[in-house]
Amino acid sequence: MATVNIPTPLRKLTGGQSRVQVGGADIVGVIAALEAHYPGMRDRLMDEAGELKRFINIYVNDDEIRGLQGKATPVAPDDRISIVPAMAGG
Description:
Order of helices and strands: EEHHEEE
Number of strands: 5
Strand content: 15-25%
Largest sheet: 5 strands, mixed
């Protein structure tokens, strides 16, 4: 199972856990597994059309998935996935 780093704003869904382990062959599968274990996670990460929200960045190891295969990016059991909400302000 891949390790997913959970950002502070989403930890209320994981009972305060900063890291969780879930299975999934690709990012869509990982998000589905997160939703199955932590209801509400999908709504925070994806829009109604099933696309990743603009202000959410997801990394597999050190690579941002938009530069890879997007939500179809494959995930191996030893991968580290980071969910990073975009910061705004100035």
